[in-house]
Amino acid sequence: MATLEDIGVAAAINILTAFIFLVAFAILRLQPFNDRVYFPKWYLKNLRTDPTHSGAFVRKFVNLDFRSYIRFLNWMPDALRMPEPALIEHAGLDSAVYLRIYLIGLKIFVPIALLAWAILVPVNWTNRTLEIEKLSNVTSSDIDKLSISNIPLGSQRFWSHLAMAYAFTFWTCYVLLKEYETVASMRLQFLASEGRRPDQFTVLVRNVPPDPDESTSELVEHFFLVNHPDHYLTHQVVYDANKLAKLVKKKKKLQNWLVYYQNKYARKSSTRPFMKTGFLGLCGNKVDAIDHHESEIKKLLKEIAAERERIANNPKSIIPAAFVAFKTRWGAAVCAQTQQSRNPTLWLTEWAPEPRDVFWKNLAIPYVSLTVRRLIVAVAFFFLTFFFMIPITFVQSLATIEGIEKVAPFLKHLIEKKSIKSIIQGFLPGIALKLFLIFLPTILMIMSKFEGLTSLSSLERRSASRYYLFNFVNVFLGSIIAGSALDQLGSFIHQSANEIPKTIGMAIPMRATFFITYIMVDGWAGIAGEILMLKPLIFYHLKNFFLVKTEKDREEAMDPGSLGFNTGEPRIQFYFLLGLVYATVTPVILPFIIIFFGLAYVVFRHQIINVYNQEYESAAAFWPDVHGRIITALVISQVLLMGLLSTKEAASSTPFLVALPVLTIWFHKFCKGRYEPAFIRYPLQEAMMKDTLERAKEPNLNLKGYLQNAYIHPVFKASEDDEDEDDDVNNEMWENESVIVPTKRQSRRNTPVPSKVSDASPPSLPEAVQEHPQP
């Protein structure tokens, strides 16, 4: 178990590491040849150009202005200087609201920490319970004397913890209420003020029923002309182009290698580059690298042309889904938020993601298989979560002095040294857990993709939910249960069964020392490492040296990245969980959490302003998830405190805690009913206002031309292809306007009986349809 001295050593190591990262970043960002690494957002907006310096050649690579090094920490005030409205204009509402999560952490935990240190810490410290217990069977350290474990059984001092639990709950709920109100208002204002976007007029329709008389495109057009005659504008059916996308991706990869070998030959024209065609270029026939890649690209171009022809001529390539565009936002809102058919499983409509948010690969998944996929993913996640606890427990057992001595007894004399022991107990557990979870986000994202979600934003939100649950079960509960059992193993063996719950109740607060080490590794050094961007820095210079030939190549070599909601938000929520749980139990953890929120706010504000290029804009649609997870953490903290006090024989005070979870859940229900509709539905009043203003400003707007090609698969767009003219001819097929096709079912014109397939039941086609002549 880490002592106060071990925590001090760990703090020194992590503070030094964070300081080195921050100083290295401050120096590297000043160098001209790193400008595109640390300021890519401005380049993508065409608001920054490569720095030019006259004079010595070295000035192109190294900043020789020594005055700039004196101000090398100016990036911190610069990151805080941009006001929030300007930040929203610059980076979008998602980024601005994401930063507010860190501010919520500061708003909640700074007052809580002041109150806890002023009241609970003196109450805990002025007891001698652990000193007495230490003589018998319980392992503890000096830092645990600041926790609730140091209060004797049945003490009246537990009333102070009860009062603080109520104060912390009311303060947290107040902050959450104000933030929910603010973010909801920001979202509505953002939606009202943002410019025209295709997703404002477009609805994604899935599970279009098959029809023997009409194609999918004709059926979609007929259905919406009948049921939305005044508002339907056009549509784009969805093609299964996954194989074509793989071929295009493979061609791009080969082109990169071709550029690499061409650049290599240009630098040394006396020798042609050669390569081996076998596994990883280690075996196989030796061939001319440039000729080989040129021939492979030619073969791929033929395959791509054949695949495009197959998609164009094969009706089975069209999947039962379509992007349907409307003349007004009001019409799209009505369609997206209502049931279209008598059969609730057909003609399913939802707001279309914005074009860059669409995850095209999953649109080809049959809708009927989604339920089975969700079940498979749920089962797989269950086993991943609970079986992952075994290796985590094993790793944590090795990250202790006793564990290392058991596995490697020959190291006993080395690790028993005071300095080595402090490093192992104060630093090793946190870094071991951090490294062990490094591949988890990738695994969870693969699960979400298999589940069939159709937008990047929904993929990230679903992965974030699973990541949070995994952290709670494995990192939080697993560390407490496994760690407490390992630390108190001798006590468990030598006491009766009815004494074990008391020992656990006393041992749970003591795990705060482990979480303190984890916070310093992940929340201090980890956040500082985020701003250094070591991986993008290395990859940019490698690409710039081997692959870049044109300015476009240089832009593609930049890797600005994005917020990474699927990994960043669960990390923040884990700190909320730790802070709320330990606020009344071991308040000493709160300053470490506050440092994390403050440092992370500054770092990510800088990254959002200068680096990250967000892949999509959801107008803060993720906020209900953020609010719900903080509420969940609050309820968990209340339930755990009840369980802890019950082991402390605080029978007179424990029943008063029962009201807290009830009040918290009621508060969540209130916020859900009051504010959540703003995040899942678009008010018709707002839609009508925006439509009216647009008609007044742009009465001659060609909306059909604006929306016609917005949702064509990227591999079909002419702007995405750099192939020969034949490809441009093929593109015309995908970009042609859809023509009005009257129904081929003659009975639909003169009978009110609905179709058994489509469930539409109008007595006849509207006049608006009959006005169009047949092409």
TrEMBL record:
Boundaries of every CSC1/OSCA1-like N-terminal transmembrane domain copy: 7-179
Subcellular location(s) per record: Membrane
Entry keyword ATP-binding: no
Compositionally biased spans, kind Acidic residues: 720-730
Any GO molecular function: calcium-activated cation channel activity
Top-level taxon of the source organism: Eukaryota
Annotated membrane topology: Multi-pass membrane protein
Transmembrane regions listed in the UniProt entry: 6-28, 97-120, 375-394, 423-446, 467-486, 515-534, 574-604
Record's protein name: Calcium permeable stress-gated cation channel 1
Species of the source: Fagus sylvatica (Beechnut)
